[in-house]
Amino acid sequence: MKEKVIEVRNLVKKFGSFVANDDLNFDVFKGEIFGFLGANGAGKTTAMKILCGLSSPTSGEVKVAGFDIYRETEKVKRNIGYMSQKFSLYEDLTIAENIRFFSGIYGITPKNRKAKQEVLLKNLDIESSKDSLIGSLPLGWKQKLAFSVAIFHDPKIVFLDEPTGGVDPITRRKFWDLIYETANRGITVFVTTHYMDEAEYCNRVSIMNEGRIEALDTPENLKKQYSAKNMDEVFLKIVRKAE
Amino acid sequence: MKQFIGFLRKEFLHIFRDPRTMIIIFGLPIVQLLLFGKVINTDIQDSKIAILDQSHDNTTREITSKLLSSGYFVLGEELFPGDDVEDVFRKGKVKMVVAFGSNFEHKLEREGKADVQLIADASDPNIARILTSYASGIINDYVKKEKLQNIQLPNQINTEVRMLYNEGLKSVYMFVPGIMAMILMLISAMMTSISISREKELGTMEVLLASPLKPIQIVLGKVTPYLLLSFINAMTIILIGVFFFGVPIKGSFILLVAESFLFILMALSLGILISTVAPNQMVAMFISALALMLPTILLSGFIFPIENMPLPLRIISHAMPPRWFIVIIKNIMLKGTGIMFVWKETLILMFMTFVFIALSIKNFKIRLE
After folding, report:
1. Structural domain of residue B88, as residue ranges?
2. Does B250 share its domain with B352?
3. Angle between helices A169-184 and A139-150 (to 10 degrees)
4. Do B266 and B336 fall within a single domain?
5. Stretch A7-30: mean pLDDT, rounded?
6. Mutual orientation of helices B172-184 and B321-330 as an angle, nearest 10°?
7. Which of B42, B295, B336, B365 has its CA 20 to 30 A from that of A6?
8. Which of B93, B98, B104, B43 is nearest to B65 (CA)?
């Protein structure tokens, strides 16, 4: 049995009378790439915010990285990384300054930081741009950097909120190489996306509709179960069935 | 603590890297102060007047030279009987005409009264009022001292006017507290709200909230740099006021510093409140500019006296924090009063700070839910 890094039991989130998350139950395992799919407004952002400690659930039990989301929020936050869809680095700071700031927040010592920073710059092949402002970099670089910074403190899980929006297919493919590398290092990747081809890259995929998880399995099994050629069809069948 | 210092370093980098922010923080206070202190000066100085002297005797000549040597007036034109007075106004050459009646000295000595007419260009009513009152003051003063000392007039009441706390009626005395209030509002409230809403707009706020930083640390980290800068600004304005414009500090300097600090805290909490309702920088800027700057300038008593406002505006002006701050600063600097006389205003500012912080926390919680 693999180690569980996220456990969700009977998670309910209501905004007034609107139910954004209706009784969610799922587990995510160590080192897995977990795709979190759903149409706009299906409730995936809400669920992700709860997992990251940005929002608290109405009821239910949630454990992230082995810690209870209600009582051990701080420990949860120390063990997760988060990258929003806007790449979330400071455009008016240089690469080195961004790294310095974010490692400061996570309490990484300067010595550690320098060693890790060198590796990071080398891996991304941008050693010479260490002192360029983020704002002057191409989008693909920013995205990879934002991701590298999000996992700079070696979290157990990294949450990616639609990380590849507005990026061309080649850059997207390269970005996914980075995600695979990360998962191989044992870091769990929890990713929301709109792109169904990206869903195929995930180890397991959950599909949400109107606040509920309608399906959760590997892309292969889902395709078999819904007798579909690709994830696109699976997704459409699930959403239409619900209607 | 290390986290916090790292956060501050980042904030200062944001400030120093952005030319617009730098101009607002360091250029604006000085420009404003010089502008209001030197250029937009409502003091009367070297105003051009015309003299129409129909009697040309010693007294009228002496009065004329008194007027012209007062520093308030210079001779723009000399008129002669028959000249069209309105014509000089139309040409815009002079602001006031002083016309002496005929046989001035003679009438004054024999009958104890003589005619002098002050005709002012009241298309600018304030200036016209000030010019005529200065001129009649000078004339009365001269007549009383030089001419009437030996004449006993029955039952005469002499009014003696003294302008307490600002004998020279210098408008810069009014501008220094007003500009201080305005600049501190601008930098503390507007810059803070913009800087917080920028993090929201760029998506970095979510990253910060998902990090081990506590919300209170984030807010303090955002606010502290502006607290420091506002404080430096307040001190700069006071120093320029004192050493460049000669505004006195009659009361306690420490009390003045403490009250400035309170006002900055109030403005910062207002800035935080604005940022909790504004989704992005543009909205934050509009709220700050429209809801803060205009009322600060118009309704705080800085430029227009509150007593002259219609009732609804007077009531609204009570909700303007600068109104109370200006009263406090004027009391301390010009009248030299202590906390005994400004405790009410101080409490109001404290109360406002408290309300803004409470509302911010409430809004913040709603957003997180």
Report:
1. 47-147
2. yes
3. 20
4. yes
5. 92
6. 140
7. B365
8. B98
Whether the CB of B162 is below 8 Å from some CB of chain A: the reply is no
Other beta carbons within 10 angstroms of residue B355's beta carbon come to 14
Distance from CA of A145 to the nearest CA of B (A): 14
In terms of pLDDT, which residue wins out, A158 or B156? A158
Q: Which two tokens stand for residue B29?
A: 């206070």
Put simply, whether B20 touches A (Cβ < 8 Å) is: no
Q: B122: domain CATH number?
A: 3.40.1710.10
> Where is the domain boundary, B92, B114, B147?
B147
The tens digit of pLDDT for each residue in A170-217 reads 888 889 999 999 999 999 999 998 888 888 999 999 999 888 998 899
Same domain, B243 and B129: no
What's the whole-model pTM score? 0.79
Q: In terms of Cα–Cα distance, which of B203, B228, B264 is closest to B11?
A: B228
Instruction: Tell me what ipTM this predicted complex has.
Output: 0.89
DSSP 3-state assignment of A36?
A: strand
Same domain for B126 and B274: no
Asked if residues B7 and A104 have their Cβ atoms less than 8 Å apart, the reply is yes
A190 in contact with B at a CB cutoff of 8 Å? no
What is the predicted pLDDT for the residue at B183? 86
Domain count for chain B? 2
Chain B residues with CB under 8 Å of A87 CB are: 203
Question: pLDDT tens across A78-102, in order?
Answer: 999 999 887 789 999 999 999 999 9
Q: Mark whether B120 and B258 lie in a shared domain.
A: no
Q: Is residue B159 domain-resident? A: no
Residues of chain B short of pLDDT 70, as ranges, are: 39-43, 147-161, 167-169, 366-369
Same domain, B55 and B27: no
User: Does B285 lie in the same domain as B182?
Assistant: yes
* Domain identity same for B195 and B341: yes
Please name which of B185, B119, B231 lies closest in space to residue B356, comparing C-alpha atoms: B185
Q: What is the mean pLDDT of residues A123-139?
A: 89
| Partner residue opposite A105 with nearest CB, options B17, B211, B369 | B211
